[in-house]
Amino acid sequence: xxxxxxxxxxxxxxxxxxxxxxxxxxxxxxxxxxxxxxxxxxxxxxxxxxxxxxxxxxxxxxxxxxxxxxxxxxxxxxxxxxxxxxxxxxxxx
Length: 93
Known about the structure:
The protein is mainly β. Helices cover about 0% and strands about 15% of the residues. The protein is built from no helices and 4 strands. The strands form 2 sheets. It has a two-stranded antiparallel sheet. Strand 2 (about 20-25) and strand 3 (about 35) form a beta hairpin. It is elongated. It starts with 9 loop residues before the first strand and ends in a 50-residue tail after the last strand.
């Protein structure tokens, strides 16, 4: 985010009954391997300190050995402090 590493995103994995899971086995491998073919949801919470006024740059990097990926339906949600906020302010202890 704007040249800083903000860490990994959290993936939401579908349940095993999802039809996107494909089982595959090969002649010399005794156990079946599963691969998911479909869209996964990812989420990353970024502190307001990482944002700057104006345009912000986001760079998404997949891990080593990851096959080609695509990103769709990107959504940004902002949460502001306001008078009816659901945040709790705790005094220093």
